[in-house]
Amino acid sequence: xxxxxxxxxxxxxxxxxxxxxxxxxxxxxxxxxxxxxxxxxxxxxxxxxxxxxxxxxxxxxxxxxxxxxxxxxxxxxxxxxxxxxxxxxxxxxxxxxxxxxxxxxxxxxxxxxxxxxxxxxxxxxxxxxxxxxxxxxxxxxxxxxxxxxxxxxxxxxxxxxxxxxxxxxxxxxxxxxxxxxxxxxxxxxxxxxxxxxxxxxxxxxxxxxxxxxxxxxxxxxxxxxxxxxxxxxxxxxxxxxxxxxxxxxxxxxxxxxxxxxxxxxxxxxxxxxxxxxxxxxxxxxxxxxxxxxxxxxxxxxxxxxxxxxxxxxxxxxxxxxxxxxxxxxxxxxxxxxxxxxxxxxxxxxxxxxxxxxxxxxxxxxxxxxxxxxxxxxxxxxxxxxxxxxxxxxxxxxxxxxxxxxxxxxxxxxxxxxxxxxxxxxxxxxxxxxxxxxxxxxxxxxxxxxxxx
Length: 452
Fold this sequence. Notes:
five-stranded parallel β-sheet
């Protein structure tokens, strides 16, 4: 097992990784920007290293600074969390070159699956269903138009290097394609440094279902069941749950088996998430594969009792999986609500501020993953996530009631600060959500209802 793990991230995920490391007796190093010098993980870790100013590009995304910190502190492994460098094949390769274990898949696997167009092609070859669309990245607007004529509208443009709900545009008619293509391409170039796009059929009133997979270095793989992530705004998730409501067992089995098959086909190592779009007719298609821990991983932990970060560390250390498929026995229901520093009444615009009060909920079967505390400045430099409130109960009705109680108990105040707590409770109370009939268009429909 590793002696020292450097955590190349911030916020709640950095603290969450550090906690599991401590349980395993692993020394931790927290890197931090100037803005995060008083962060919770800096206070918790065994050692901390300042790696740059508040800008993520000059700190958490600045590979030389992160590597220098790892070498200086004697780290023998780096956990990248999610976001930032977690899916950067160059970073994984640099770690490898310096004899430091990257806690994630090999660089060549990240490179293949990070190219969303190539990932589609590889998964199709492995027998997974993919949506009709371009075989790879389109060469330009003319080819995009040709593909559109073949598959029809609506369609979706996606950045090849995209992620986190960015670099996506839905096109519903041919006269919208030119502007959408140019805008999405320019956005992808600015955000990801890669303006390539690919084209897919867009499925209306779909559900977003993802499957958690673990693979070791010895060719073994298991799935840990599925999560429903359909409650989204602008392709970013607000509420996730496990298991997915109203999902027939046979269909659940097909999706989980497909995810394991896809992981083995590319020689995956570590924790992977296979994201599927599920149509109203019961057909499902792969959207993408995420080569990292997901924000919503706690719902899988709550239903399976498996610590995913612990499994990542054991796999990265070269140990075989200690879990067989027959050992995975999800029970009960878990729901996660993301409490963000955003204003739902202003189209979820970021609403940062200085926290004057932060009292998370408690009680039976309630978990709160957060890095916030009174006096913490929620700044504009990073993601707006404040806390993940997660509950477990024997069934969905009890889980919904527990989540509403927990959110109602949450106390968050701050100068200029707004949160999504009230809006999350509206979602929980909505008849469509309570019935498990929500789709990826649910939040947009709610917003339209509120505007009337």
